[in-house]
Amino acid sequence: MKYKLLAASILATLSTSAMSATYKLEELGGLDGAKHNYVTDVSENGHIIGLANGLYNFPIDISYLDFTDSSFESAYNATKDAYERIGKEITFTLDDIENNDAVHTNADAHAFMLSYITSSNPGRLTDSEYQKVSNGVATVYTSEGSSEQVIFDEQSLDYDGLTRSTTNLLTAVSEDGVMVGWGSDPYEKTSFTQTDEDEEETHFLRDFLSRAIVISASGDKVPLAPEFDEYGGFSAAYDIIQTNSGYDVVGTVSVDIAEDPLEDIEEKCDGEDEPVSDCVEVYNRSYSSGIFNKRAVKWSLDSNLNVTNTEFYGLGLTPEDDEGIAFRSSAYLINENGLIAGTSDVRYKDTDTVVTMPVVFENGEIKEFLDQEDGWDSGQAFALNNDDVIVGYANKIIEGGYRTKFYYYDKKSGSVVFPTDFFSSSSSVANDINDNGIVVGQGETDIYNTSSRRREGFMYTIGEDSIVNLNDLLPCYEDDGETRFKYTIAEAKAINNDNEIFGVATKTVEKTDTFGNVTVDVDGNIEYESVAVAVKLTPIDGSVEECPAEEIEQYERQSASFPWYALLLLPFAAARRVFREK
User: Fold this and answer.
1) 3-state DSSP of 159-223
2) CB 3.0–4.6 Å: which of 216, 317, 374, 399 could bond 425 by disulfide?
3) Contact 16, 549 (CB under 8 A)
4) Pairing state between β 179-183 and 168-173
5) What is the pLDDT of residues 23-65, one digit of tens each?
6) Concatenated DSSP letters for 9-21?
7) pLDDT (tens digit, 9 = 90+) per residue, 325-368?
8) Distance CA 425, CA 236 (A)
9) Eight-class DSSP state of 42
10) DSSP per-residue codes, 50-67
11) Contact assessment for residue 273 and residue 194, using Cβ atoms and an 8 Å cutoff
């Protein structure tokens, strides 16, 4: 397979687009040992944070597994059949995995075991009797590249290195490099025996789902625990601003457990048939709004990151006595003026239906700013500049499908504008806005495909009613003048006041297996794949040039299976503010 043809088919962006040299693209450098890299936030002083996933050599513990279980044979046979369909011979047996250390020496065996323990059908992904896997890590970018920022993970007792079982997200960084985010507790392999049973079971359990954290520029960590911490509680930090006395951090915290899930927990989670913490997590997943009532919060910290004050905000609705589900509000954004924006549960058109809408928290009030009468029934606030302009997205039905559309809300004038994006049924999201009124984000550009549309980064300037595809601001060719430009901007995540844009691009590279080795097809030819890279776009002098069309050929898939971690390539995974609603 030829490199150029594969690049064209996977990226599918080189047909008739106009491209230019008005922006220079440079990679920020990825994390060693990870396939995909993203940006989540950038400060005006150049501090850059992000995340990486697709870790190579992911640790797998097989010591607790029963290889006589019929599910192993079924999974193995399905994999063998998939290999045969593409003419590939399977290179390992279940005995090799169990007794010959194949999981650490054979990449196919390693990929098989990753797929097995993370399968969502029949539910091993959430079953506490299987090792828990989290293939994403928080990262910090410097001039030397990217390095991992550990949040709550710990060294494993069962294999070398961290447990790799925690969620790890850095969401915002201040002007002096102080970072905020949230993470989960690492899972611990624990023995459990059911009541009236003699046989021990192995379960992977943790103490909390989410905990907010502040990390100094030098790496000192300060967790921000909720006052209500039964069954671990919940807290998350989403934004930070430097103040004269220290810092203001906004986020969300648990304040209690809603009535309906509390009744279930007290009745069913007795520790007789399953561990209590596992039972609680099952109920947290089964309720659409989770088990915790959560409220928006602002923590004030001094210069040494000591919490000096905690201020809670309410809801945009009043729960009825018979509503026993959890209700939530979250503070996602704060600017230099002290304006705080986020989301809250509200009533939809004065009915009993509850929806989550973007709001402003101000003077003890929670104010919606999107008009539900226009059909908008949910949304998010993703960024806020110092002129009190908020950007994000809202949802409604457009041309028979549920679509997101990016907006900007000028609080001073009270106006909300939904600019024209790539086409009428294109879903779009605004991720950031600078103080120059320039908005960046991503939108669907593939008008013909209705199921899984290609997304590309855009720039929009308030006052100019036109959206610009960022790929139209890049060169047509590499420096040799013949090779097509190898990057496609998939999403713009942040923009500073120098109009430098930071985001995620895709490029085609030699395909690697789960050990990081280059793969070949059944004929011995090197395979290729598209990966995500973190990039910076810098304005330069130049002019738009029209790129000639390039022929697109059909891509013939040659891998035996779709990698499980590729699901993390969805745009939400790398959102500038990564939110958790449960």
Assistant:
1) CCCECCCCCEEEEEECCCCCEEEEECCCCEEEEECCCCCCCCEEEEECCCCEEEEEECCCCCEEE
2) 399
3) yes
4) antiparallel
5) 999 999 999 999 999 999 999 999 999 999 999 999 999 999 9
6) HHH---SS-EEES
7) 999 999 999 999 999 999 999 999 989 999 999 999 999 899 99
8) 33
9) E
10) EEEEEESS-----TT--T
11) yes
CA distance 224 to 374: 39
Query: How distant, in Å, are the alpha carbons of 134, 271, 442, 471, 543 from that of 283?
Result: 21, 14, 34, 44, 57
Neighbours of 191 (CB within 10 A): 9
* Residue 56 phi, psi dihedral angles, 5° rounding: -80, 155
**Terminal alpha carbon distance of the chain:** 44
Residues 6+ apart with CB under 8 A from 301: 214, 222, 246, 247, 248, 249, 307, 308
Element of type H or E holding 534: strand 528-539
Residue 46's contacts (CB-CB under 8 Å, 6 or more residues apart) are: none
Written as six digits, the tokens of 456 are 């590309």
Both structure tokens of 118: 């993370």
- Asked if 471 and 456 touch (Cβ cutoff 8 Å), the reply is yes
